[in-house]
Amino acid sequence: MKLSYVERLRSMAAAGSSTVVCLLGLTGCHSYPPPTPLDQLTAQQTRGHEVFEQHCSLCHYDRSDGSLHGPSLLSMYKKPYLHSGAPANDDRVTETILHGHNLMPAQPNMDPEDLNDLLAYLHTL
Length: 125
Prior knowledge:
Shape: globular
């Protein structure tokens, strides 16, 4: 079956718009800088890494992509939103840690200094 001139134009336009959508999707992917190396952390950030290892590492990766039991925290503060859709800021992260979210258990008794150290560490990821 031979296509008319108008049908061929429509076909080319559809193919072109699909290509544009694909290219926009590819350019929408972000590449974030790597986390601060452990040997370059401040004293507070190092304590925060220790808190992470004790309380968070059973469920979250900090220095690699992928989910463990919860989402990876790599580049968490470098993105506009958390995995939950909440803004990526200290208030929302603190709220999630202290009160839990979905399957994440609450940590209502976390020492305030440990929480501040943890937040400092999470900013390095």
